[in-house]
């Protein structure tokens, strides 16, 4: 809701992300992250943002409030805390997904190596006078040739990726 409100109010004022960023003394990428929901402004920046967009913080956060609240900063900080918790949860899910992809890649590489070891390049003994066997054998040999050289690099990169996703941030 916050990200949509920032974008809508910025556009209604006829400001580009760059112009708004200059007025708030931040970089354009920061405004872009706010509008895409990748981060949220802190409470002080939220107040400055509301001032630049000629609105109240409550409207930025999606509330329609008739009278001003005395604990405005407290409610803002509580809402920001909820938003930050949601962003942190989304980040954890992303890291778990990436870790699962790396683990699956490692398992796939090991499985293919086991299969290649089991067939022991038996296609090399085929009768290559038959065009179908010649094409299939050439494809299998090309795959094995490239896989055996590139798979160890991909395996090492995946293991490093798994280790990095387990590091504390």
From TrEMBL:
Segments traversing the membrane: 98-119, 139-166
Keyword Transmembrane: yes
Pfam families according to UniProt: HTH_3
Superkingdom, natural source: Bacteria
GO molecular function: DNA binding
Keyword hit for Ligase: no
Chain ranges of the HTH cro/C1-type domain: 6-60
Gene3D superfamilies in UniProt: lambda repressor-like DNA-binding domains
Keywords: DNA-binding, Membrane, Transmembrane, Transmembrane helix
Protein name: Putative transcriptional regulator
Source organism phylogeny: Bacteria, Bacillati, Bacillota, Clostridia, Peptostreptococcales
